Amino acid sequence: MELTGAEIVCESLLKEGVDVIFGLPGGAVLPFYGALSGYPQIRHILVRHEQAAAMAADGYARATGKVGVCTATSGPGATNLVTGIAGAMMDSIPMVAITGQVPRPAIGRDAFQETDITGITLPVTKHNILVMEVDEIAQAVKEAFYIARTGRPGPVLLDIPKDVLAGDRRPFDWPESISLQGYNPPGEADELQLSQAVELINQAQRPVILAGHGVLISHAYSELKELAEKAQIPVITTLLGIGSFPTDHFLHAGMPGMHGMAYASLAIDSADLLISLGMRFDDRVTGRLSDFAPNAKVVHVDVDPSEFHKNVKATVPVLGELKQVLNQMLPLVERKTHVEWLQHIDTLRAEHPSLYIRQTDELLPQYVLKQLSDITDGQAIVVTGVGQHQMWAAQHYAYKEPNSLITSGGLGAMGFEVPAALGAKVGRPDKVVWSIAGDGGFQMTMCDLATAVENNIDVKFAILNNGTLGMVHQWQEFFYDKDFFATVYSGNPDFVKLADAYGIKGIRVTDKTQVASAIRQAMETPGPVVLDFIVKQDEQVYPMIPAGESVNEMMEEPITERIF
Amino acid sequence: MAQKHTISALVENHFGVLCRVAGLFSSRGFNIDSLSVGETEDPSISRMTIVVGGDDSVLEQVVKQLDRVIDVIRVIDITQGAFVERELMLIKVKADTTTRAEIIQIAEVFRAHIVDVCPRSMTIEVTGKNDKIQAIIGMLSSFGIEEIARTGTVALLRDSAVQ
């Protein structure tokens, strides 16, 4: 049977198990949409800005573990995807972006809506392909998905000229298998690396596990738990590793880094071994490298060898896929206890109550998150934007399950909160999904409330509204002599009226006593809901290790009340 | 003088791969001294020979980041091994009746070829290792060098060194 290029794309997507695409059509990609309308098995969710398509595909991928798919037209449509693609690249998210391109004869002549999107996305994609022949489409799609989801996942862009999509009918030839000469994702670890790593683990007196995104990518949660419990090693989860280990487990020792809990940073500081599992020693975690974990050897397990010694020199790097590596390690790791070390960490926890929320009548943003955590029993999927609210969401919500915090870590893209939440809910309709937004980021992508309404995507949007670009304002407070230039928003809309304009229920909360009931009311209301929490301004995120500093310069919240 | 490393990478001859590699070097701040690329015995595969400046930790990152690129098949740091390296240079030097003979003699010493002569200049083609190229540039500079075009280093491991 002979099919057009566009139909071959659709058939290929079916072969890859795709059942939802986020996108916005345009001239160059119209033939694809023409074919897609005849494929009801693939749900298309029409967004209002292509950035939302990419970020929704990202949120979908993080919530489900499947490859997120987004599509846009050429030129401005494609360039609008770039932020979302870059975010997926930084956080290792499996994504395939399909863009239409101007017809082949027009390429390179500054045609209408032409951009060299493959050139533009070279540094922010794991791979990209400009598909110049109909016969290449099936192979390209298969390769794209394979590359996106294996090894260290990442975004892959497929750029397909309009005449390739529309033209020549050709037979659909789905390749049985593909082999890429230059791509061989690691599996099990080398015996020598493994035995050296295990030796260090068995000898350590003050070991700490740093669990990162790799644990979630590899679905290695039970292996991590087994390792931690067998050798009684405390587990510190990075921002993107949150959920890989239950927050209420006695061995969980918080989140490290710039806004991590003080006890976590102090534990790392006095550790004699760091067992780094699928985390990359990002600068938000390490601070000044020369003072990071000064007393510790490092076992670094990762699927991407370029991360070894990139930021932190590993004593023993272990190359392999995390789940397999942990399974190799477990029988070799000795069952033991570290009673004194764990007691030391408990003492640190008591002396540095980083999660303490001040008793006050003012409506604190931290309080909202704590209430949300209690009311949802840590069972919701929490999607955040970027900024102060993001840090508070990471700190004060008690995440119990994997893939329950969805947040733009490496890129830190504001506006993530709305579209990523939509993608997460589409992927996990069985879960309660809360989008925690700053009033700054919310305004970047709020146009896609329309997408929520049109598709009845039941996300609860909680805006922590302090009328400021909060995190930037905090930096100006601490480091720029309180010169609050360009960080105060005086033109915000009435978010409840905005919700109403979209036909959504809006609830304004101005008082601490209304918080719990507002949250419950939102959850009992079917469909999307917008909550506008008017929170206290000038709150700072504590603790804070300023950029380029170390735990020695950590700033903790000045606590004036008796809390012991 | 910073350490220099010669890296040989086999890449799939796909559209954009040269761009991706060049972009990778610039975005990661690696210092490219020279880059030369051409087809191998298999026309679907090209060999890139890259001379990079930097210490061992920089080199380690260069090799690993290159290896990460899907279209890059294999990366070898051949600096430490026994390898054959060559570069070709065309050099146009000022030459008149008084200097022409001496320039020709210098060219002979370096086993270079004269490929163009005109009343006021002479173009010489030289092949050799980096130090030979530098040496002939040194010898000719006093006559006045008008233009230089260099290919960049290409290199192959000696068979005796291949494991």
Automatic annotation (TrEMBL), chain A:
<feature type="domain" description="Thiamine pyrophosphate enzyme N-terminal TPP-binding">
    <location>
        <begin position="4"/>
        <end position="118"/>
    </location>
</feature>
<comment type="similarity">
    <text>Belongs to the TPP enzyme family.</text>
</comment>
<dbReference type="InterPro" id="IPR012846">
    <property type="entry name" value="Acetolactate_synth_lsu"/>
</dbReference>
<keyword id="KW-0274">FAD</keyword>
<feature type="domain" description="Thiamine pyrophosphate enzyme central">
    <location>
        <begin position="195"/>
        <end position="328"/>
    </location>
</feature>
<dbReference type="Pfam" id="PF00205">
    <property type="entry name" value="TPP_enzyme_M"/>
</dbReference>
<comment type="pathway">
    <text>Amino-acid biosynthesis; L-valine biosynthesis; L-valine from pyruvate: step 1/4.</text>
</comment>
<dbReference type="Pfam" id="PF02775">
    <property type="entry name" value="TPP_enzyme_C"/>
</dbReference>
<dbReference type="GO" id="GO:0005948">
    <property type="term" value="C:acetolactate synthase complex"/>
</dbReference>
<dbReference type="GO" id="GO:0009097">
    <property type="term" value="P:isoleucine biosynthetic process"/>
</dbReference>
<keyword id="KW-0028">Amino-acid biosynthesis</keyword>
<dbReference type="Pfam" id="PF02776">
    <property type="entry name" value="TPP_enzyme_N"/>
</dbReference>
<dbReference type="GO" id="GO:0030976">
    <property type="term" value="F:thiamine pyrophosphate binding"/>
</dbReference>
<dbReference type="GO" id="GO:0050660">
    <property type="term" value="F:flavin adenine dinucleotide binding"/>
</dbReference>
<dbReference type="InterPro" id="IPR045229">
    <property type="entry name" value="TPP_enz"/>
</dbReference>
<dbReference type="GO" id="GO:0009099">
    <property type="term" value="P:L-valine biosynthetic process"/>
</dbReference>
<protein>
    <recommendedName>
        <fullName>Acetolactate synthase</fullName>
        <ecNumber>2.2.1.6</ecNumber>
    </recommendedName>
</protein>
<keyword id="KW-0479">Metal-binding</keyword>
<keyword id="KW-0786">Thiamine pyrophosphate</keyword>
<keyword id="KW-0285">Flavoprotein</keyword>
<keyword id="KW-0460">Magnesium</keyword>
<comment type="pathway">
    <text>Amino-acid biosynthesis; L-isoleucine biosynthesis; L-isoleucine from 2-oxobutanoate: step 1/4.</text>
</comment>
TrEMBL record, chain B:
<keyword id="KW-0808">Transferase</keyword>
<dbReference type="GO" id="GO:0005829">
    <property type="term" value="C:cytosol"/>
</dbReference>
<comment type="function">
    <text>Catalyzes the conversion of 2 pyruvate molecules into acetolactate in the first common step of the biosynthetic pathway of the branched-amino acids such as leucine, isoleucine, and valine.</text>
</comment>
<dbReference type="Pfam" id="PF22629">
    <property type="entry name" value="ACT_AHAS_ss"/>
</dbReference>
<keyword id="KW-0100">Branched-chain amino acid biosynthesis</keyword>
<dbReference type="InterPro" id="IPR002912">
    <property type="entry name" value="ACT_dom"/>
</dbReference>
<comment type="pathway">
    <text>Amino-acid biosynthesis; L-isoleucine biosynthesis; L-isoleucine from 2-oxobutanoate: step 1/4.</text>
</comment>
<dbReference type="InterPro" id="IPR004789">
    <property type="entry name" value="Acetalactate_synth_ssu"/>
</dbReference>
<comment type="subunit">
    <text>Dimer of large and small chains.</text>
</comment>
<comment type="similarity">
    <text>Belongs to the acetolactate synthase small subunit family.</text>
</comment>
<dbReference type="InterPro" id="IPR054480">
    <property type="entry name" value="AHAS_small-like_ACT"/>
</dbReference>
<dbReference type="GO" id="GO:0009099">
    <property type="term" value="P:L-valine biosynthetic process"/>
</dbReference>
<dbReference type="InterPro" id="IPR019455">
    <property type="entry name" value="Acetolactate_synth_ssu_C"/>
</dbReference>
<feature type="domain" description="ACT">
    <location>
        <begin position="6"/>
        <end position="80"/>
    </location>
</feature>
<dbReference type="GO" id="GO:0003984">
    <property type="term" value="F:acetolactate synthase activity"/>
</dbReference>
<protein>
    <recommendedName>
        <fullName>Acetolactate synthase small subunit</fullName>
        <ecNumber>2.2.1.6</ecNumber>
    </recommendedName>
</protein>
<keyword id="KW-0028">Amino-acid biosynthesis</keyword>
<comment type="pathway">
    <text>Amino-acid biosynthesis; L-valine biosynthesis; L-valine from pyruvate: step 1/4.</text>
</comment>
<dbReference type="InterPro" id="IPR045865">
    <property type="entry name" value="ACT-like_dom_sf"/>
</dbReference>
<dbReference type="Pfam" id="PF10369">
    <property type="entry name" value="ALS_ss_C"/>
</dbReference>
<dbReference type="GO" id="GO:1990610">
    <property type="term" value="F:acetolactate synthase regulator activity"/>
</dbReference>
<dbReference type="InterPro" id="IPR027271">
    <property type="entry name" value="Acetolactate_synth/TF_NikR_C"/>
</dbReference>
